[in-house]
Amino acid sequence: MALREHTLMMRALAYREGQLQFREDEPTPVLQPGQALLKIRKAGLCHTDLELSRGYLGFSGVLGHEFVAEVVDGSPEWVGKRVAGEINVPCGTCDMCRHDVPSQCRNRTTVGIDRHPGAFADYLALDERCLHVLPDTISDDAAVFVEPLAAALHILEATHILPGHRVVLVGAGKLGLLMAQVVAQTGADLTVVSRRDSTQALLKRWGIASALLEDLPLAQADVVIESTGAADGFDGAMALVKPRGTMIMKSTFVGLTPANLTKAVIDEIRLIGSRCGPFDAAIRMLANGRIDTQSLIDARYPFADALAAFEHAQRPGALKVMLDF
Amino acid sequence: MALREHTLMMRALAYREGQLQFREDEPTPVLQPGQALLKIRKAGLCHTDLELSRGYLGFSGVLGHEFVAEVVDGSPEWVGKRVAGEINVPCGTCDMCRHDVPSQCRNRTTVGIDRHPGAFADYLALDERCLHVLPDTISDDAAVFVEPLAAALHILEATHILPGHRVVLVGAGKLGLLMAQVVAQTGADLTVVSRRDSTQALLKRWGIASALLEDLPLAQADVVIESTGAADGFDGAMALVKPRGTMIMKSTFVGLTPANLTKAVIDEIRLIGSRCGPFDAAIRMLANGRIDTQSLIDARYPFADALAAFEHAQRPGALKVMLDF
């Protein structure tokens, strides 16, 4: 089923010239060597999409980087496969690629984030090196969570969480609730900071403790995960880290953080930035049924209503908003 | 030689009520259980002393935490010994003490920095657990560097610097030039950022490369050590760290740092605060002659001229200013 059999126009949700636009006349991508043509089946809205629409990274183009798709053109071994896709498209030759860290490729583009079209469109042309086949045991709904679950799993790559550690997660949004499930499986003593009744109830159902930030003891946590998505979340989270403890930083946003780094020096704290993680492990965990993704779906919209879906995703406390193609 | 044989008044350089004061009527300390009485032989001025005199930590009292002294009262096994002293006085019972990190004791006081009188005085009463005997091969001059050299050595505890690593040290002050000598001994490819001709010449004599910040390639260093002592040094230093690289933070100062932590997240950088280090190792390195401390002495003042010494230490580029008792 080659591209030529499709229309040359497609639907797409783009951010251009400072505006979100739902277009029906976006050119269907032309395949470059090494690329597969993906027909998007389902996509999810991420906090980063909201930040991009506020000017983060100066992005212009089709948004979207959480998706499940079918390969409709490309190498014969890929066509017909149901896939998830890595969002970092590596050059394969720079020092980071050679050292097996392609997600940090010096010359990468990033799907729907940085100089690469995204998945909020009927079709996406993506480097075949970025594709991961999905086993049948993973539903389309669950498959949309492969990318954010991989990002959540990077916590376990960034620092060694011991079963005896006290861990506090500050920021129980879409990504936070995936990280909570990942960290809970280490056996660590996990507390998630949340003010929201519905989030507290969900955590309770998962057997995970929740608390208000002001009720937590200062400087007692071995590991704090900061995922508030806001500059003013930093110091409150760092106040929880014990001396020589670790803070994982997951928040990206426009602007600078006024941070008390002198406290980090005095208490000899480690701050570790964390972005993308291992897709293979995320697919294994979803296939094994170890992660509850259904409870994280807040709403579903047909792709034609993508602008309304975007509005929905900006509501305080909104969890995953799905786009059905 | 008990305290009672000395005068009950002594000389001291104190910071009180927002002012540096040289006093001749400071009460000589009264020994508490477990303490030794130290007669200070020599002391050094540190960047932290300057920060404390700008309101850092709200300190009030006798300054000074780099010194060599003779024990003149206390347990018989200590009296007569020439010693250096740890600056963190631990409680011995909290979780950090029990986990063998007494420098991060929850209830510590810190000599000349936090609720403990300092060494810019004729006498200092200090917990005997803080004392380290100095071998005769370490001169009084060199012994004053035990505390800052220990702090420099903490870099090697905070992160594992490999012989193949590229390391950049930003901030070639008193502490920076000790760190440079420590890092150079790992075999790593070290560059020290300095604009000062005299510093560049000294580094050259030690076989260490120097460069201007703007001439260094961005995002190429495995490890960057930030020791500028100023908030605005942070982002320039972080720009040098490669993806997944490490930045050691050594600067303490009054106020917040406007930091681009989103960059740390995207590049998955580790920021590690570093303060105090191992005295035993510092004493070994000085005894072995592995560290050039003589070249770091900028000026010597008799203690009676401590206020002039303090002025001298604030000159741009001033290295170690010594107080001779």
Protein described:
Two copies of one chain form a homodimer. Chain A is α/β, with parallel strands linked by helices and 325 residues long. Chain A is 23% helix and 30% strand. Chain A has ten helices and 19 strands. In chain A, helix 4 packs across helix 5 and helix 4 crosses helix 9. The mean pLDDT of chain A is 95. Chains A and B meet through strand 15, strand 16, helix 8 and strand 17 of A and strand 15, strand 16, helix 8 and strand 17 of B. Strand 17 of chain A pairs antiparallel with strand 17 of chain B, so a sheet runs across the interface.
Quick structural summary:
The structure is a homodimer. Chain A is of the alpha/beta class.
Seen as an oligomer or otherwise, the chain set is homodimer
Biggest beta sheet attributes of chain A: 7 strands, mixed
Flag low-confidence runs of chain A: none
Q: Name the helix and strand elements of chain A from N-terminus to C-terminus, one letter apiece.
A: EEEHEEEEHEEEHHEHEHEEHEEHEHEHE
For the secondary structure, the number of strands of chain A is 19
What is the percentage of strand-forming residues of chain A?
25-35%
Query: First CA to last CA of chain A: what distance?
Result: 18 Å
Average pLDDT metric of chain A: 95
Percent range of helical residues of chain A = 10-25%
Helix run count of chain A: 10
> Radius of gyration of chain A, Cα only, in angstroms?
20 Å
Instruction: Summarize the largest interface: chains and residue counts.
Output: A-B, 38 and 38 residues
Gross morphology of chain A is globular
Q: Helix/strand-derived class of chain A?
A: alpha/beta
